[in-house]
Amino acid sequence: MERAGAPAAAREWLGEKGYDPQFGARPMGRTIEEHLKKPLAELLLFGGLEKGGHVVFDVADKDGAKVVLGSIVRGGPSA
């Protein structure tokens, strides 16, 4: 089974970046598009997942200035 994952720090970052006190969760779609969907599309289009694996996104620094989306390929068929 293939799956996507995000550590707690990444989920917290997404909640902070995707919420605005004035507009609620309206910025969430734009945040997901910019930081998750576009990098995921690049992984898919340019062979980053051609052997399968898991996709994980994480925050690269404590200030949340950089988000990393990467694939982890595991050997053998998935159960």
Summarize the SSE layout with pairings.
Layout: E1 4-5, H1 8-17, H2 28-45, E2 54-59, E3 67-72
Parallel strand pairs: 1-2
Antiparallel strand pairs: 2-3
Unreliable stretches covering 5 or more consecutive residues: 75-79
Please provide the ordered H/E string of secondary-structure elements. Answer: EHHEE
Q: Widest sheet: strand order?
A: 1-2-3
The percent range for helix content is 25-40%
Report on this structure:
The chain is built from 2 helices and 3 strands. It has 79 residues and is an alpha+beta fold. The protein has a 3-stranded mixed β-sheet. The longest helix is centred in the middle third of the chain and has 18 residues, at 28-45. The protein starts with a strand and ends in a 7-residue tail after the last strand. 11% of the residues are buried.
Essential attributes:
79 residues; 3-stranded mixed sheet; 2 helices; 35% helix; elongated; disordered C terminus
What is the structure about, briefly put?
With 79 residues, this protein is an alpha+beta fold. The chain contains 2 helices and 3 strands, in the order βααββ. Helix content is 35%, strand content 18%.
